[in-house]
Specification:
422 residues, mainly alpha, 16 helices, Growth Hormone, Chain: A
Length: 422
């Protein structure tokens, strides 16, 4: 499949392979390690429900910080020669935080370092997404974007398998399997993920060249705020296609991000075996790989909006199915449904947005895009926390996200009817 890509496209796709390792760890072992440190009866420790709520709050903090930083850093990165600098810095700090996380000895230190790592990880994605206009043509955007998610799902399984083995042999399942202390297992898990993330990113750092840009000016930092304000005004008053798409995206990506961030918490709260959950999550990566490639092929024949709408309907059904969750088999069916649409709805949204914005201001626009993406995840995580703290079940919390998909469907249809204005 890589043979159909140019050298620059291949390097861009590989970053999805690199950063997806951190994503996989964050939605599987990181919540488990956090709860192992947090839950207990000793002073300073918390209950299981409190740990779930605190973890969701931490994710919410990340999304708010990135949403505020995104447009500012994105607009600055649009200046000639700056995008690679911003991207490389975010990756370096994210990788460093990832590796350091393995050495955290308390749950408070663990969650603080994780929050910082995820902030830089998320910031790197803002710059990475905005590179799409530079690395490929408009005609190939849907296909290349889908390949990124597809190969990211498969590639993430390699370091995750190492991390999972380290978790198992450090007594993560039963103390009788312990070959070395749990702390060593965490160090290995975070370490191999961080090193993989860095190594697979190197081709993009080496080969990327910023083609679309704006010329740097004196007082760029001060002027960037005025520029962002002007762009927001333009979107709100004149560019209805971008406006309605961002509202739609804000709504439907809420469920996507929340389910990704809380998938292990869902199984844990249902009392399901950890091994079974992780096995199904690995299987989901394979399903997501296949699903992304299928939608990449479909993108050559069908309109991008139509394919996104199909994904939205699929997720709507998944959310309603969550009401029936009781057993590990139910969890596996839910994971399969998520895998079918997870990569495609994100990759197609990314490529569609790239098509309807000015290429030279892609960093700024993707910063705004991240406000809606991360803002939505904030609401979803807040809903999970609110329902759990109010005594509700995780089934109800996940099912409630169906409303966001329904509204997202309506606004995306409205966006599709608006004229293109770059």
């Amino acid at each position: 499949m890589f043979k159909n890509l140019t050298k620059t496209e291949r390097a861009w796709v590989l970053y999805d392979v690199g950063n997806s390792a951190f994503t996989m760890l964050a939605c599987s072992l990181i919540p488990i390690w956090f709860k192992d440190l947090a839950i207990g009866t000793a002073p300073g420790q918390v209950t299981s429900d409190q740990a779930t709520a605190y973890y969701s709050i931490a994710i919410a903090v990340v999304t708010v910080v990135v949403a505020v930083m995104g447009p500012i850093c994105g607009a600055l990165a649009d200046h000639k020669g700056m995008k690679k600098i911003f991207f490389t810095t975010a990756v370096a700090l994210g990788v460093a935080g990832c590796i350091l996380n393995g050495f955290a000895a308390s749950w408070t230190a663990f969650i603080v370092i994780f929050v910082l790592s995820k902030i830089f990880y998320s910031a790197s994605l803002t710059f990475y997404d905005s590179m799409l206009n530079d690395v490929t043509t408009e005609e190939r955007m849907d296909e290349v974007s889908s390949y990124g998610y597809a190969w990211g799902y498969i590639g993430s399984c390699i370091p995750f398998t190492v991390a999972m083995i380290a978790y198992v042999v450090s007594g993560g399942l039963r103390e009788s399997l312990m070959l070395f202390p749990p702390q060593v297992g965490k160090i290995i898990g975070f370490g191999v993920t961080g090193v993989w993330w860095l190594l697979v990113t190197m081709p993009l750092i080496k080969n990327y060249h910023q083609i679309n840009y704006v010329e740097a000016e004196k007082g760029a930092v001060r002027k960037v705020f005025a520029k962002i304000g002007s762009t927001l005004k333009k979107i709100a008053t004149r560019d209805k296609k971008v406006l309605f798409f961002l509202i739609a995206f804000f709504l439907y990506i809420d469920g996507v991000g929340t389910i990704i961030d809380n998938c292990i918490n869902i199984g844990t709260d249902l009392g399901l075996p950890t091994v079974g959950q992780v096995v199904f999550l690995l299987a989901t990566q394979v399903v997501a790989f296949g699903g992304s490639l299928v939608f990449a092929r479909l993108s050559k024949k069908y309109d991008t909006v139509t394919l996104i709408l199909v994904c939205i309907v699929g997720y709507f059904c998944v959310c309603l199915y969550a009401l029936t969750l009781k057993t590990l088999l139910h969890f596996g069916i839910l994971a399969f449904g998520v895998g079918c649409f997870q990569g495609s709805i994100q990759s197609l949204s990314r490529s569609y947005f790239s098509k309807i914005i000015p290429a030279e201001n892609s960093g700024e626009y993707f910063g705004i895009y991240d406000i809606f993406a991360k803002g939505a995840s904030f609401l979803g995580s807040a809903v999970i926390a609110w329902v759990k703290l109010a005594g509700g079940t995780i089934n109800i919390a996940v099912a409630s996200l169906a409303v966001f998909f329904a509204l997202g469907f309506i606004f995306l249809k409205l966006a599709d009817k608006q004229p293109l204005m770059k």
